[in-house]
Amino acid sequence: xxxxxxxxxxxxxxxxxxxxxxxxxxxxxxxxxxxxxxxxxxxxxxxxxxxxxxxxxxxxxxxxxxxxxxxxxxxxxxxxxxxxxxxxxxxxxxxxxxxxxxxxxxxxxxxxxxxxxxxxxxxxxxxxxxxxxxxxxxxxxxxxxxxxxxxxxxxxxxxxxxxxxxxxxxxxxxxxxxxxxxxxxxxxxxxxxxxxxxxxxxxxxxxxxxxxxxxxxxxxxxxxxxxxxxxxxxxxxxxxxxxxxxxxxxxxxxxxxxxxxxxxxxxxxxxx
Length: 272
Hints:
The protein is mostly beta strands. Helix content is 6%, strand content 47%. The strands form four sheets. Strands 2, 3, 4, 6, 7, 9, 10 and 11 form an eight-stranded mixed beta sheet that branches. Strands 12, 13, 17, 18, 19 and 20 form a six-stranded antiparallel beta sheet that branches. A three-stranded mixed beta sheet has the order 1-5-8.
């Protein structure tokens, strides 16, 4: 369960400003909504397609002037803002700090926004935005200036440790026991290009890319910017696949050249 911590801070101080300063409502308000800093939400977090199921948003309201309720609004890239829900507080924070849990899943995030029922159809890089309005005891509405951004992310995109073995027919080493140049260990980033695809370097060349697609059965389909062939031509047991338990990605591929095939074994271990 993922928790998103949202703190309603300095409420007493802000309310003191509103009541003690010689300021008219028009200085702060547009219509009946007053803008302030009563909520300090987490700025952003990733919604990983296929991995984010149910999660909680924790709202912490410190002891202070009573908050009757909180209106949560949401929008999504290219969509109009809608009221997501109203959370009853009943001024409980007048006596003590109050923490509320707000449950979300894809259905509740998508509701009212005309989004596809299949989350894999979402566009990587799009996002939801949650905003918060506090309804005070005197019915004033205080619109928080900070928001929470929930970005759509590929479920396997991110940083990895790469352990690569490169077998060259003439440059050195010996297939399959000694890779040319030994084991090559590095840290790489695997950027997403769609809900099911990421890209990585081809072999040791940063200017050529492989597109990785993880299929529902955890097999992997790969395509190349340059000439390449999936698998190890000398060992049919080397199968491209994803291990959902460890998050590791196993890639095997080759390309032909003078003297024979150049063969790559690559294991990507997620960095947590």
